[in-house]
Input
Amino acid sequence: MPKNPLVLYDMDEDSPPSKRSFLSKNDNIDVPVKDESDATKELNRVRDELFLAMQNQEKMKRKIYELEKNAIHINFEKKAATTEAAIMEMKCESFEGEKEKDFEKIKREYEALISKERKEKEKIVLESSKKERQLISKISKTLIQKLKAETQLENAQNAVINYQTIIDKVQQQFDEEKTQNEEKHQQEILCFKSSLTAVRKEMQRFKDIELEKQRHQMLNELSGIKREFLHRLKEAQKNEKVERKNYQAFKNKIHQKLAVAETLLKQKEAEVEKLKKQIGDLMEENRKQKQKWQQCSGTQCLTNKISHFEGSEQSGSSSTLFYPMPSPLPTPIEICKLFTLNLFLK
Output
């Protein structure tokens, strides 16, 4: 007996084929199945664009972090400049300390000079007293000799008077020399004091000039650092504005793409739901056909139907009723494939 082309497998065989088609091309039920390759490609493309958008967002975050790092570096340079200014002030203080040491040295020299002058004065006074004592001793000896010589008493008295006059003259001369020396030393001291005052003024003027020069230099350096800092700050602010503007534009573009992707996803979900509904209808129809097939009592009913169909096919009659074989149930492997496809489309 020839096999019916509408039967998917031979009923006389003990075991059916290992793999069956869920929707066979020989079935009378034509259910269109849409190819999902284009939708899958579009979905993958949208996912790739989302991944690239996330990468670009991470790059923007890195750029913002680098800008913040540059701002911290500029603050560090500013602190370094402040430290250099403090070092310059310390150098100025050390310079003042050296000047104070020089002044103390000059003061010690001046005190040594005064001490030396005082010693010289004391030496002159001691020498004058010694000469006076020697002179007085000599006069005393002479007077004693004159007193011893009675014959020359008057001459001795005259000599004593003369010697007394000489002593008065010597004392007067000594007093005059002493006064002159004191005045001379006093003038020298005044001259030295005026010289010391002039030296102090010159040192103070030199110190003021040096401090003013260092202050101007430090101000110039600080002005240069300030200008450089302001320039870098303006550049950083400008770059930050540009980066924020670009980031906002890129963010808007990503939001637009996300809206389009959500629309596409909703469409795909609607199509998937439609396919699920069609699959459910097909499974329900398959179940009904299986029930009808199971209701046929015995093999004779099936044989009569097949013979009746063959006779109608040979006679070419179109009015003969035809009962197609029910579609086989899907295998567990095919059910797993359909479930995996649904998960992927979700």
